[in-house]
Amino acid sequence: MQSLKSLFDRKIQTLFPLVLYSVLLLGTSRLVLDSLRSENSYVFKVYGRPAQGQGGRNKLPMAVLPEDRIGEDCNVFEGKWVWDNVSYPLYEEESCPYLVKQTTCQRNGRPDSFYKNWRWQPHRCNIPRFDPLTLLNMLRNKRMMFIGDSLQRGQFESMVCLVQSVIPKGKKSLQRIPPMKIFKAEEFNASIEYYWAPFIVESISDHATNHTVHKRMVRLDSIANHGKHWQGVDILVFESYVWWMHKPLINASSWEWRPGTDENCFNESYPIQGRPYWGSGSNLEIMKLVHDALQKLQINVMLLNITQLSEYRKDAHTSLYGERRGKLLTKEQRANPKSFADCIHWCLPGVPDAWNQILYSYLLKDYQNFS
Length: 371
Fold this sequence. Notes:
Organism: Arachis duranensis
Radius of gyration: 20 Å
Distance between the termini: 26 Å
Keywords: Membrane, Signal-anchor, Transmembrane, Transmembrane helix
Largest sheet: 7 strands, mixed
Helix content: 10-25%
GO molecular function: O-acetyltransferase activity
GO cellular component, one term: Golgi apparatus
Number of helices: 10
Strand order of the largest sheet: 5-6-7-4-10-1-11
Structural class: alpha+beta
Strand content: 15-25%
Number of strands: 15
Order of helices and strands: HEHEEHEHEEEEEHEHEHEEEHHEH
Domain Trichome birefringence-like N-terminal: 73-126
């Protein structure tokens, strides 16, 4: 079997010049996850709990029931956002100590909270409800790494918040080792990690804190410096888009959803509803190029195109309630939303939680039961 490094060098390098779109690339080097299900699982009820050892090595195999898997005909990317203030949000800002100021919109002064109560619902099927214990058991003795820019860091923080509440105090930790963040679940011998690489390929913007969007140079044929940090990781999740654009225009032109206006995402409280919608920042041609390139790879890579479902959510951006250059906006800056509203990053809890639910559903779908 070829090493992960050689696979990256020969195959994935051909992909990165095309990865200019806001997609999640779920690359799995090993996706046969030998672990247990949650406290309420059928296996536990029938056979009882397994003996606990380091990383749960003396354990029964986990079983994923048919109703927990999305079907082959289920397109989870076509659907709508439905109001659900009963079961959503899946966590609160106050319950997750791992969120950074860039995402804690309510703590930063956002007056409304409607953005937290929308659930993504595919048209013809259902996404399994996120079960943190199930995910942790699938990750037992394994590593999951999110690789990309600050949007990807938001998805990493979302995933940590989704699982951390079921882990006892003293059995979980978060380390910051730039350009990485590493969340560890001790009892599962599992880690969820983040790696800063805004272009995926090497660039002059690879320093985790000392970088600028105004000067951007990349080496399209090289991932060697990054790739050595990815070797040995079981599940790799890539994202890259905004840094490739000269002037990012994601949910920033209000005339697209309200003709005749010249505003942005500031003060928006509801998703775009009632019609299929692609924003001006979406490029269907690039999407097709990425899809076609992935079909030629000889490694297990899954494309999860969460672009359109995210573009509906003009209401869920940090707007005036995030950070700019590491600081919250001043009173004077907040008085000028046309210039200072952030219509790229997302509040948490929020849209990235839906991305992780979809990621979770694909991990369940590909999970191999053991007899």
